[in-house]
Amino acid sequence: MSALQPPGRKLARSAGVIGIATTTSRILGLLRDQIIAYLFGAGNAVDAYYVAFRIPNLLRDLFAEGAMSAAFVPTFTRVLVRDGRAGAWRLASNVVTTLIVATGLLVALGLIFTTPLVTAFAGDYDSVPGKLDLTVQLARLMLPFLTLVAIAAAFMGMLNALNRFFVPALSPAMFNVGSILSMVLLVPLMPGVGLPPIAAVAIGVLVGGVGQAAVQLPLLHREGFRYRPVIDLRDPGLRQVLLLMGPGTLGLAATQINVFVNTVLATGEGTGAVSWLNYAFRLMYLPLGIVGVSIATAAVPSIARHAERDDAPGMRHDIANGLAMMLVLNLPATAGLIVLAGPIVSVLFERGAFTSTDTAATAAALVCYAAGLTGYSVVKIATPAFYAMGEARTPVTVTAATVLVNVVLNILLVREVGYLGLAAGTSIAAILNAAVLVALLRRRLGGLEGGRLLVVFGRTTAATVVMSVATYALMGALAHVLPGPALPLQVARLALAIAGGMAVLAVTAWAVGLREFTDVLRALSSRFLGAGRR
Hints:
Elements: H1 6-40, H2 44-63, H3 67-112, H4 114-122, H5 131-142, H6 145-161, H7 166-186, H8 199-214, H9 217-223, H10 236-267, H11 273-308, H12 312-339, H13 341-349, H14 356-370, H15 373-388, H16 393-417, H17 420-445, H18 450-481, H19 487-511, H20 515-533
């Protein structure tokens, strides 16, 4: 079995620099969630905030970071290759202006129809005095975030196409910084201005949105971008973006139907269910953001360049390298989250208003979400690969079908196991989505180095099983050696269990000949060290 080829090492290095920035952002995001949990626990105020944030998030996924990004990055890359930077900058200004106008109209409509929107999502909140009104108030505060994040997503796409990964990957950290500062500074002041304390979190969303866009502007300026407020609907590049966005938006609309159904089902599960699911999903998203998003972000521009040149072998190799890295890093991460779910949630959140009951409920949801981690990650590569080939309908059709399966699963499972059924159904659907997309990619490209990927999967699974057993046993032994509920002891037990598990994983990977694991670690660590020296 050969190690990763040089393009694979290049991908790993690019993913590494993205990983540095993304890790910073995720750590800040975790700190943000810890502060929310400490101040508000998993009660009515946090339930209201998370449902309120779903409304601009829903529109963001449809028109900003979702369909727009998937359509814009390959198109911008093609124009950059074909027409040079001048043509690419014209397209960028056109797209940014179009986004500002389109999202501005959506925000205006959202402000007018906030109450029926929130009632559709969380009608059961009306049974709790003041909860529905609070959700409406928070949603109105956060709706302008849509425009801010759309601009930030366009900036990120431009920089990624120029192989500038660190700053755009770091930009979400500014969102978390803005949120953290707003909570720390504004929560005590909110009652004095007639607002509930949780409103400080909503204001932080807007502050963070501004920071997310602003931090990327200096680098874009150095690259030569000068924004011109123009909309030219005759621009072939803009038409291509809109053409690709059309089916992509329909596919994401299907996904949002699933989000809508899940939200309605979760709000019907009583106080805390929405919050438990959100805390758990955010923890699952930590490795997804660091590993899955980093690898996909690094791989997509190269895949798009191969697609522009009709280089099927190059696409196959880049996609296979990305999938191999996904397997090598995500399977152990999945097992780690499942084995250590309880201790992780306890160490991170169980203090202040967040109780041991909240810990148990959140940990159970985390186990269910973690099962789908590899599926979520693989989709991050597979979907943009189809967009790069100008075949948006394929992932859209698969996503729509998967969403229908997800909705049915969640409705059935929530009746049997309550809110946990929502997390479990989502994970099953994610794995199904990834499997179908990879199968269709394999058929479209005449293979994806399947023999190599099968060997990587088998060896990674073997190493992961050994790691899981060792970690579970070590955690049990540490409970006897370092007993007690004190936070320092909990941290020590968790840190030692993770370190021991990683050591066992590394040794087992070497023993079974999983050279990809060593290559990935070497490439990532060299990039981390190099970035540190800079």
